[in-house]
């Protein structure tokens, strides 16, 4: 009998290629954050105008995930992965050379299409290039890469911007991407073109894209304008339209013989539990990194690079634990490993909520960050493996895409939802305590309005401004702003804890127990 190694002797080099593609695609979701201050000066613009450098990638990435997954299932995952990789590399080069925000925004959108293709198909390609026990190990390693890439943006971005300027965060993708293209061509095995004789479900693709676009765009608008009401046309209109379109999408797909999405996925409790965990991971772990970065840079005072180094406390656990999850997942029920690992993260968030205060430093935060890192390092790899269990080979790309969609949607919802919680607690504290600083009523009203407009992320720039420093009220105002921020940050950590607890319950109650896997049937 021919063993696995003889059938595909270069499978680990294939895994390296797929891991590099995944790393680049996910890194570019967060790496731009630390470059924004430099870009503000370079383009002589405001942070508000630069938001679309971030939002264009987030929006197009989420919209493209399912479409690229389906195209990979139909025409061959290696082909679509490779085409996506080349598109990503070309767009990265264009972004590095961009002389205007318009070009950069368009380039980021194109880059996101490539990133979506790489990330939606890498998991399915790993599952089809590996068999037996090695599949769990390989998926565990890929899960580690997902965890590391999502958490290492501040470190890598901070180093590149500090030493080589903001274009380097895009240019670095070019040489890495070229190496990945060559390795993919040589080492990655193609999957069958399962749907080459099928008709492309254009209506399904259009409806899924329109629905996800409307929902995520509505959330982005709400994030940019926290004072706008949920039920207003500019926010609620987009969200309601998105939900209606997604309902139409499900109805249409359920009636087609060759649909883009097999709705039977959502009749399976195990898969429902899987995507709930993916959503909780995005909303709880990944969105929280935005708030943690703001705390460390804006209020503690660390540089972007110093912040990234300290956040290795979270990301390094993906490197340490990821390869071990394949062994653990073969010995213990994955649902329990995922469920209890999420509870470890909940304890980490509670520790951070307790640590936040006017004198907080990294020394107070690291125990909670370690617990969050352990959760990230355990859950991501196990989630990938569990999500592929029981999925037909021709649908692995779509299953992978759906897990990525819910992880990304969770991240977006977490950033917006937690941001609103933080804004509310921050404003409540300001309203209750600014009057006690001794400032005249007119000055108090002006400072209050300025602080609310700046928001929790940037309120420190008002409190520590040179103009306020010349007044006798500066110390009192700074203390109020610090405590207002702490109230908001503590509430965010508590909300994140609640989200991952929900994810834990979904894993324990919905995901299936041990199943007969390739490893058990072949070994």
Automatic annotation (TrEMBL):
Keyword hit for Transferase: no
Domain of life: Bacteria
Keyword flag Membrane: yes
Topology versus the membrane: Multi-pass membrane protein
Cellular component, GO annotation: plasma membrane
Chain ranges passing through the membrane: 12-32, 52-68, 80-104, 110-130, 137-156, 168-188, 200-221, 227-251, 271-292, 312-330, 337-357, 363-383, 491-511
Subcellular location: Cell membrane
CDD domains: MFS_MMR_MDR_like
Domain Major facilitator superfamily (MFS) profile: 14-515
Entry keyword set: Cell membrane, Membrane, Transmembrane, Transmembrane helix, Transport
MF (Gene Ontology): transmembrane transporter activity
Database matches in Gene3D superfamilies: MFS general substrate transporter like domains, Multidrug resistance protein D
PANTHER family from the UniProt entry: MAJOR FACILITATOR SUPERFAMILY MULTIDRUG TRANSPORTER MFSC
NCBIfam families given in the database record: efflux_EmrB
Family of the protein in this entry: Belongs to the major facilitator superfamily. EmrB family.
Protein name: Permease of the major facilitator superfamily protein
């Amino acid at each position: 009998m021919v063993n696995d190694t003889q059938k595909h002797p270069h499978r680990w080099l294939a895994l390296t290629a797929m891991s590099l593609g995944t790393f680049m695609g996910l890194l570019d979701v967060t790496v731009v954050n630390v470059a924004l201050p430099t870009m503000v000066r370079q383009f002589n613009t405001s942070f508000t105008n630069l938001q679309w450098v971030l939002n264009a990638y987030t929006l197009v990435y989420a919209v493209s995930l399912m479409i690229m997954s389906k195209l990979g299932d139909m025409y061959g995952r290696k082909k679509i992965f490779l085409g996506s990789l080349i598109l990503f590399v070309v767009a990265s080069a264009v972004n590095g050379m961009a002389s205007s925000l318009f070009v950069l925004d368009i380039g980021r959108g194109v880059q996101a299409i490539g990133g979506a293709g790489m990330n939606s198909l890498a998991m399915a390609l790993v599952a089809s290039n590996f068999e037996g026990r090695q599949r769990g190990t390989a998926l565990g390693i890929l899960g580690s890469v997902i965890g590391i890439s999502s958490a290492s943006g501040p470190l890598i971005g901070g180093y590149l911007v500090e030493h080589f300027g903001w274009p380097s965060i895009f240019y670095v993708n070019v040489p890495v991407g070229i190496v990945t293209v060559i390795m993919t061509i040589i080492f990655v095995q193609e999957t069958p073109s399962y749907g080459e004789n099928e008709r492309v479900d254009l209506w399904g693709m259009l409806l899924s894209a329109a629905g996800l676009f409307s929902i995520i765009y509505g959330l982005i608008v709400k994030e940019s304008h926290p004072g706008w009401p949920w039920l207003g046309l500019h926010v609620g209109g987009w969200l309601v339209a998105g939900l209606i379109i997604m309902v139409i999408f499900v109805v249409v797909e359920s009636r087609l013989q060759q649909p883009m999405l097999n709705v039977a996925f959502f009749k399976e409790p195990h898969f429902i539990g899987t995507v709930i965990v993916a959503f909780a991971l995005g909303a709880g772990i990944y969105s929280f990194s935005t708030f943690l970065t703001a705390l460390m840079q804006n209020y503690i005072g660390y540089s972007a690079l110093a912040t990234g180094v300290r956040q290795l406390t979270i990301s390094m656990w993906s490197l340490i634990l990821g390869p071990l999850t394949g062994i653990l997942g073969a010995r213990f029920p994955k649902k329990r490993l995922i469920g209890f690992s999420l509870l470890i993260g909940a304890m980490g968030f509670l520790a951070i909520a307790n640590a936040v205060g006017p004198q907080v430093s990294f020394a107070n935060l690291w125990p909670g960050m370690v617990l969050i890192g352990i959760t990230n390092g355990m859950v991501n790899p196990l989630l990938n493996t569990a999500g592929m269990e029981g999925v037909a080979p021709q649908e692995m790309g779509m299953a992978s895409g759906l897990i990525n969609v819910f992880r990304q949607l969770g991240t977006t919802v977490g950033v917006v939802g937690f941001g609103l919680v933080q804004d509310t607690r921050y404003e409540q504290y300001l309203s209750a305590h600014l009057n006690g600083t001794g400032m005249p009523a007119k000055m108090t009203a002006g400072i209050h309005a300025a602080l609310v407009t700046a928001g929790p992320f940037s309120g420190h720039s008002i409190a520590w401004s040179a103009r306020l420093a010349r007044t006798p009220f500066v110390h009192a105002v700074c203390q109020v702003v610090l405590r207002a921020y702490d109230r908001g940050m503590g509430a965010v950590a508590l909300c994140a804890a609640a989200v991952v607890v929900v994810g834990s319950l979904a894993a324990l109650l919905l995901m299936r127990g041990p199943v007969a896997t390739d490893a058990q049937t072949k070994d």
